[in-house]
Specification:
heterodimer; A: alpha+beta; 5-stranded antiparallel beta sheet; 19 strands; flat; B: alpha/beta; 8-stranded mixed beta sheet; two-stranded antiparallel sheet; 14 strands; about 35% helix
């Protein structure tokens, strides 16, 4: 250990020299350091065997760089103290910190170029290899900690899907319940999901309404008329659409409101009314100018209606003029002008009216007729309770709900109505609203029961309850068998319900859910419409689903040369040959688009309302591709003068002046080139070659010296970050799958997931399979004693 | 807003597609305000309006201490209620500051504002804050009204992804905290607020409704007892989750029981709203009109309103501000951006002033609602650009039932905790809290008598 003492004492001298001394002494010191580092045996790190002490390797391959390079700044400033990483034990004790350090070294963020003592690339990679070897060694020799997934309230989407699968009722919890708070970027984090009194009240009223719709024991309420002008979408010429939920299995009247007129000579139009893609009525309407209208009176209006029988739930209503030849003669900008054209304007619904056809959905719930009495109701409730609690139920548990039925009967309700009360009691039970797992004894870990595993699986992949096949397998304790589990995984991923992963995982991971909140300056972006926004969301959702269903590599997210477009979005992208409102797979052949990071949705959520932001987009890529989120900016930063952009100065010139500040430069050197590469896309994702009067320059250079020009070349560089990208996706997907944050003790799991996914050519299903078979997904740790919890929390605060 | 005293008509029965989403609860044609306050009752109401991203202080702080003279730019709309407001300068939320922790000023600004405690930095696990001032009051006097407190939000859209530098979104979206671990999410959907206040039941004859309510009560009773049994088998953390659930069940049970006993019927005098209005002004008016009904009918005495989530990126195109609020507040001295921030501040202030006028015009006995209220309008940030957490913009409106002497600007000693104000307010509701978070005592000088 004498060598180490020498190093330590040298460090002290050198540091003081660098701080105080003139440039020449710093250079002398640098020479000295290079000599010392060179003298140490570098090169390939040993993957230390578990018997050999790690300290000698640490002294040789880690400590010199930490002392001579990093500690120059990180001793007292810059937030991180290198002291905490000066001992070999720190690798085992603080793997999270070490992973950060490795990440910064790998990305070239550290050491900064103005650091006097630059280690050689070989030295850096030697340090990384050594630390990773130590991680592996540590993982092999320690028992893994699965962590604890807290009791988890169903979030709004899980509630809504579970109700759909349990009772066949389409209930829009996302509109009825207050929003769920999120943590770690997702809204399914058990610790953050609470039950406020306002939500409890909603549960109570929703339970009654859902039960009534599922059982149908109540008479229909009086009908009403129901206008949703704000929801009606223009999806093409003379074509409008309304997606709406109706509450009852009943008849409804669809009223199509038509406005405007055409020339007196023009032919009548044919109006087609359709529900969920099926035409329910066609009729012919005159288009002539009315006498009133010619004199400048009120705009001509007409209403056409169709009565249809609907099941309670979501439906798409559409009104369109078909075979409309005259329309082609009307200029595009006059087609919604009531003085020059006639068109369907909005859709109203009226109802509910007593249906002439009986409801089909109820048959799944009502195994027998509840009017026949208690035996039947008991049978229905036994089946429902098992499925609602997602586990075998005991007789007393069913008896408790049957008491509700008995009380309702005694109060004079019919058999069906009394069953409804029992079902509504079921729907407010904690066993339904929460996913509760049995705790192992404090301080121990245990495998989850098979039924608990079934719920973890179904809420991960479907955001819903296990179906009968899954639950039955679990009840026979066979689900955990690896082959059985894999077979179920395959089946579940192939199910349409797996689109929940696209909506809920990808929608939050890629932040495309924020599209709802996006506003764009109408002056600058007149093309920004709800239709375009919906199309963008659909594109990214379908793209994710395709990667998932076809088990494509994660690299498709970066440069997959296909996507899903309808006419509206294809026009937005300048892609020809896509016609009509329906989405289809489109092969991409130009450099302009490939992967999700050049899709309109992502480019829009990473921009400001009035302009693009190199910083926002750069940060988005750092977060999501490099998995290296930058630290927040310091408070006093000179700002971009937005009014000058495109007028007096190009954006690039402005950004570059801002990067001359050393404080900013350390992050913006990495962030800005990424953002600049995407400058060819405006704030709603349109391709452009000019911003104002300045041409777009989308070239750049990364801190590690690699340069690129344009988004296509950027992507080839992004592909080199596949290990980081894979790690990032793995961390986020594990967070989502568990409903808790990834903790230090999950590092071995993450490393194993990255390895397995990489080995399988980065295929997405290998990542999902890895998660499903992982220790944190399949096991649970019992509670620690309060003392240890306190210590853990204290450690985290420090 | 006109709250009618006449018998309820079918006018409030809305156009709708089915009972579940359309019909208000009104189940009997009884006069409005079945539980009208007697002349002797003079409850004091308390409310907080939280403004995100700070306020342009150069156009906020009055020039001199003492009686309010000419009001600075942003405060101009308060001219009609000048004698009903106090501007309180130099208050601080110390726990909003970075201290040893670093970035995350927006998450902390909101989290610490009404709790006065450290915001435990976590993106999710072990969420921990403190009980907010309104909830300290709700715990003490909330049982006197059907709703112990009301939480209102004026930003419906949620952003995906992380909120603020390691602070869970729960800290940035919730002003009211019932316990250290349980936020009370604000209701931002107008229809949901309407139904929270006025119910969502279908119309049925009184006897039928009473029978339904009795069933509801028995279901809640049953849930209470079975949950307690379930809890016994759980670990501490999970038990805590179910505790929150149980507390909420109890609260709803009390509300249901009260409705059964008193037959509380409120004619809101307005149609059940549908959807979120496009402009902020319409949105604000719709939500606060309902609040006034709730105060007037004594449905609650405690309310919190978030004008936006902390760090809100809302744009206000209707007043010519196409950029997001938060990015604009990082103006770094850019005059255009400063001007837009001021425009947003002015819009918020004008709407709040309008609300105060409506409160003042709402009679209550020989007094009016504003006189019977204490309403804070403020932010946990002063300069949004620099993220400063002291010298906060704070306005106190109302006379607190006669215990304030408004119409003045008071300058406190620097570093006076804003929680001292909150402690003084809830004290006037008869709530004696030892402290509200980091409060060091009562705020002096609010009353001259």
């Amino acid at each position: 250990m004498a060598a180490q003492e020498v190093l330590v004492s040298l460090t002290g001298t050198m540091l003081s020299n660098i701080r105080r001394g003139p440039a020449s002494s710093a250079i002398r010191v640098l020479v000295l350091v290079v000599a010392i580092v060179a003298a140490a045996p570098t090169g390939r790190a040993q993957v230390a065997s578990s018997t050999a002490p790690a300290s000698s390797g640490f002294d040789r391959q880690v400590q010199p760089m930490m002392f001579y390079v990093c500690s120059n700044c990180h001793k007292e400033i810059a937030g991180v103290s290198i002291d905490a990483y000066s001992k070999p034990e720190s690798i085992a004790n603080n793997p999270e910190g070490w992973e950060k350090i490795i990440g910064k070294l790998r990305s070239g963020e550290m050491p900064p170029p103005d650091e006097l003592m630059q280690p050689s690339p070989a030295e850096v990679s030697s340090l990384i290899t050594f630390i990773e070897g130590e991680f592996d060694r540590h993982d092999r020799t320690t028992t893994s900690d699965p962590g604890r997934v807290p009791t988890h309230r169903l979030n709004r989407i899980e509630y809504q899907n579970t109700v759909r699968d349990l009772l066949g009722v389409d209930f829009r919890a996302t509109e009825e319940f207050p929003p769920d708070d999120s943590g770690y970027g997702f809204d399914n984090i058990g610790d953050v999901l609470t039950v406020s009194p306002a939500l409890m009240e909603k549960y109570l009223s929703a339970g009654e309404r859902i039960a009534a719709r599922a059982i149908g024991g109540d008479p229909l309420p009086p009908p009403g008329v129901f206008t949703r002008r704000d929801r009606v979408r223009n999806i093409g010429d003379s074509t409008i659409e309304l997606a709406e939920v109706v509450d009852y299995d009943a008849d409804y009247v669809i009223k199509i409101n038509i406005t405007g007129h055409r020339g007196a000579e023009d032919l009548p139009v044919t109006l087609a009314i359709s529900v969920d893609g099926k035409t329910v009525k066609t009729s012919t309407l005159p288009v002539q100018i009315s006498a009133v209208n010619q004199k400048g009176g009120a705009t001509q209006r007409a209403v056409d209606e169709a009565r249809v029988s609907l099941t309670g739930g979501r439906h798409v209503f559409r009104a369109a003029f078909v075979n409309d030849e005259t329309l082609k003669k009307i200029p595009l900008n006059a087609r919604t002008n009531v003085n020059q054209n006639i068109f369907p304007e909005f859709i109203e619904l009226a109802g509910p009216y007593k249906s002439t056809t009986p409801a089909a959905a109820r048959k799944t719930v009502l195994a027998c007729n509840p009017a026949t009495g208690r035996v039947c109701v008991n049978r229905i409730m036994t089946g429902l309770t098992r499925r609602a609690y997602r586990r075998p139920v005991t007789a007393p548990e069913v008896a408790r709900l049957m008491k509700v039925y008995d009380r309702a009967r005694a109060a004079g309700y019919t058999g069906a109505q009394s069953l409804q009360f029992a079902v509504s009691a079921l729907l407010v039970s904690p066993q339904f609203l929460f996913r509760i797992e049995k705790d192992p004894a404090p301080g121990t870990t245990a495998r989850l029961s098979d039924v608990e595993l079934a719920s973890r699986l179904s809420y991960f992949l479907w955001s819903s309850m296990p179906d009968d096949e899954l639950l039955t397998l679990a009840e026979s304790n066979r689900l955990h068998l690896p082959q059985v589990l894999d077979a179920q995984l395959g089946r579940m991923l192939a199910s349409p319900k797996a689109s929940a992963l696209a909506d809920n995982f990808a929608g939050q991971w890629l932040e495309t859910r924020s599209l709802d909140a996006v506003k764009r300056d109408a002056q600058k972006f007149p093309g920004w419409t709800p239709e375009l926004r919906d199309a963008m969301r659909t594109e990214t959702r379908m793209f994710f689903e395709a990667v998932l269903q076809e088990n494509r590599p994660l690299s498709d997210f970066i440069n997959g040369n296909y996507t899903f477009l309808n006419e509206r979005l294809a026009r937005h992208y300048g892609i020809a040959g896509v016609e009509g409102p329906d989405f289809r797979k489109v092969a991409l052949s130009t450099d302009q688009r490939s992967g999700v990071f050049t899709q309109g949705s992502v480019l829009t959520v990473s921009a400001y309302p009035t302009r693009t932001s190199v910083v926002l987009r750069g940060k988005y890529l750092l977060d999501n591709v490099f998995n290296a989120p930058p630290p927040p900016p310091p408070a006093d930063v000179p700002v971009l003068d937005e009014t000058k952009v495109g007028v007096a100065q190009s954006l690039r010139l402005q950004m570059e002046s801002h990067r001359t500040q050393p404080l900013c430069a350390s992050c913006h050197r990495r962030m800005d080139p990424l953002g600049f590469a995407l400058e060819n896309y405006d704030a709603i994702g349109r391709w452009r070659t000019e911003d104002g009067k300045f041409p777009i320059d989308s070239s750049g250079q990364f801190p590690n010296g690699k340069s690129f020009s344009g988004p296509a070349q950027l992507k080839s560089i992004l592909l080199e970050s596949m290990p980081d990208f894979t790690r990032g996706v793995a961390e986020r997907m594990l967070t989502y799958a568990l409903g808790r944050g990834v903790e230090a003790y999950d590092r071995p799991t993450i490393r194993a997931l990255v390895q397995a996914t990489t080995d399988d050519g980065y295929r997405i299903q290998s990542l999902i399979r890895g998660i499903v078979h992982s220790v944190p997904f399949q096991q649970r740790r019992g509670e620690t004693t309060d003392v240890r919890v306190a210590q853990l929390q204290e450690a985290r605060v420090r | 807003m006109i709250v009618t005293g006449k018998a309820l008509s079918r006018r409030t029965v809305l156009k709708g597609i089915g009972a579940a989403i359309s019909l208000p609860f009104l189940d009997a044609m009884t006069p409005a305000f079945a539980r009208a306050l007697s002349a002797a009752e003079k409850p004091v109401r308390v409310a907080w309006f939280y403004v995100p991203n700070g306020i342009d202080m150069r156009n906020w702080t009055p020039g001199a201490e003492g009686a309010l003279g000419e009001l600075p730019g942003i405060l101009k709309p308060f001219e009609p209620v000048k004698s009903d407001i106090m501007v309180l300068s130099n208050l601080t939320t110390n726990w909003g500051r970075p201290l040893q922790v670093g970035a995350g000023d927006h998450g902390r600004a909101l989290g610490s504002y009404m709790t006065g405690v450290e915001v435990y930095r976590t993106a999710g696990a072990d969420l921990k804050l403190g009980i907010s001032a309104d909830q300290i009051a709700a715990k003490a006097v909330g049982h006197l009204t059907p709703l112990p407190s009301l939480e209102v939000g004026l930003e419906e859209a949620r952003m995906a992804g992380n909120c603020d530098n390691g602070y869970s979104c729960a800290y940035a979206y919730n002003l009211a905290w019932k316990t250290e671990t349980q936020p009370l999410p604000p209701i931002s959907d107008p229809r949901n607020l309407f139904e929270r206040l006025f119910g969502s039941d279908i119309i049925e004859p009184p006897a039928a409704h009473a029978r339904r309510v009795a069933m509801r009560q028995s279901i809640l009773d049953d849930v209470l007892s079975s949950t307690q049994k379930l809890q016994a088998s759980l670990g501490n953390g999970d038990r805590r989750k179910l505790d929150e659930y149980l507390t909420s069940v109890r609260e709803i049970e009390v509300k249901v029981a009260r409705a059964a006993k008193e037959g509380t019927i409120i004619d809101p005098g307005m149609e059940k709203p549908f959807g979120v209005p496009t402009t902020f002004a319409e949105y604000f008016r719709l939500m606060t009109d309902m609040m006034i009904v709730a105060f007037k009918a004594d449905m609650t005495r405690i309310a919190t309103v978030m004008m936006g989530r902390e760090g809100s990126v809302r744009a206000y195109p209707e007043i010519g501000v196409a950029d997001g609020h938060h990015p604009l507040t990082h103006h770094q001295g850019n005059m255009d951006m400063l001007a837009k921030v001021k425009q947003i501040n002015e819009l918020h202030a004008a709407l709040f002033a309008e609300f105060l006028v409506k409160m003042k015009n709402t009679r209550e006995g020989d007094s009016n609602l504003l006189d019977q209220s204490m309403i804070v309008y403020g932010s946990g940030l002063s300069d949004g650009n620099q993220h400063t957490h002291d010298q906060l913009p704070t306005l106190l409106a109302g006379r607190g039932g006669g215990s304030f002497t408004p119409g003045r600007h008071i300058i406190y000693q620097r570093e006076t905790p804003v929680t001292n104000l909150f402690a003084s307010m809830i004290e006037r509701m008869g709530v004696r809290a030892e402290h509200v978070g980091d409060s060091t005592g009562q705020l002096a000088g609010l009353s001259l008598s």
